[in-house]
């Protein structure tokens, strides 16, 4: 079993008089989370817990500083998160999400980090997050900063999916399904409930439907199968993503490796 990092340096632990020197030229790692229903077996914090744990490892491996996570995400949509048909989801509308991320980035840019790694854990955040970063005009706002922003599932190689997820429904439908369940069983088993609801008819990617048959689209907020979820699978997947992120940092970003 691989040991989790205990020696993570936290941005929030710095003082104002220390932060300018500590961040200039350094790596900052920022988890972007969410507070969204994840079926009857997983807590509302899944989309926060997973990127937070990944970001801590990435920060430790890159000698970076870990920023506090953004705990609220973009709106949950029916075909990728169950939507607002289930209680507990707290969200920002898209424009608020873009403004929130833009304001945080603008403040961080003044510290001139050498690298900013943004780790997203909520499906609907991705396009808004990328728009906020791009909208900052990085060449002007972050002239000396390399920025790597990704959703954690984007670093899962096709070969890993083929080997471990034979009934893979697409990442949009991996909501409260086997991968999130497995990761939570590894990271926070104490908050994973014993039931394992499955769903045989996951929604299609990129299709919005109204009126919606909620029972057909999901099973109690679960969009796909949880079969095969285990702490062992979660551990494998967790380190697969951590290693993929560290590879990307070391060997050049955006280069696809299946
Ligand atoms: Zn999720």
Task: Chart the SSEs and their pairings.
Elements: E1 9-10, H1 16-23, E2 27-32, H2 46-61, E3 65-66, E4 73-74, H3 78-81, E5 91-92, H4 94-109, E6 115-120, H5 125-135, H6 138-141, E7 146-151, H7 158-164, H8 178-187, H9 214-217, H10 231-251
The protein binds zinc ion.
Zinc ion is lined by residues 38, 46-47, 175, 180.
Describe this entry's structure for a reader.
The chain contains 10 helices and 7 strands. The protein is an alpha/beta fold and 258 residues long. It has one domain (9-251): 3-Layer(aba) Sandwich (Rossmann fold), CATH 3.40.50. Strands 1-3-2-6-7 form a 5-stranded parallel sheet, sandwiched between helices. Helix 2 packs across helix 10 (231-251), helix 4 (94-109) crosses helix 5 and helix 8 (178-187) crosses helix 10 (231-251). Bound molecules: zinc ion.
Summed up:
With 258 residues, the protein is an alpha/beta fold. It has helices at residues 16-23, 46-61, 78-81, 94-109, 125-135, 138-141, 158-164, 178-187, 214-217, 231-251, and strands spanning 9-10, 27-32, 65-66, 73-74, 91-92, 115-120, 146-151. Helix 2 (46-61) packs across helix 10 and helix 4 (94-109) packs across helix 5.
């Amino acid at each position: 079993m691989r040991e989790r990092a205990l020696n993570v340096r936290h941005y929030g632990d710095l003082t104002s008089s220390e932060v300018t020197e500590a961040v200039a030229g350094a790596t900052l790692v920022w988890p972007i989370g969410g507070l969204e229903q994840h079926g009857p077996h997983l807590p509302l914090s899944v989309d926060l817990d997973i990127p937070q744990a990944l970001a801590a490892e990435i920060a430790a491996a890159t000698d970076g500083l870990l920023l506090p996570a953004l705990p609220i995400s973009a709106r949950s949509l029916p075909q990728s998160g169950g939507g607002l048909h289930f209680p507990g989801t707290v969200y920002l509308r898209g424009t608020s999400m873009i403004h929130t991320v833009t304001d945080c980035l603008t403040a961080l840019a003044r510290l001139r980090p050498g690298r900013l790694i943004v780790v997203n854990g909520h499906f609907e955040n991705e396009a808004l997050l990328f728009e906020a970063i791009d909208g900052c005009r990085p060449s002007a706002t972050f002239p000396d900063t390399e920025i790597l922003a990704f959703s954690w599932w984007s670093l899962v190689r096709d070969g890993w999916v083929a080997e471990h997820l034979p009934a893979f429904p697409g990442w949009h439908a991996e909501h409260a399904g086997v991968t999130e369940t497995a990761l939570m069983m590894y990271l926070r088993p104490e908050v994973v409930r014993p039931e394992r609801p499955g769903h045989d008819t996951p929604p299609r990617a990129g299709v919005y439907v109204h009126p919606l048959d909620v029972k057909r689209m999901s099973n109690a907020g679960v969009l796909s199968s949880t079969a095969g979820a285990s702490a062992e699978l979660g551990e494998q997947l967790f380190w697969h993503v951590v290693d993929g992120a560290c590879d990307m940092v070391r060997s050049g970003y955006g280069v696809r490796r299946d």
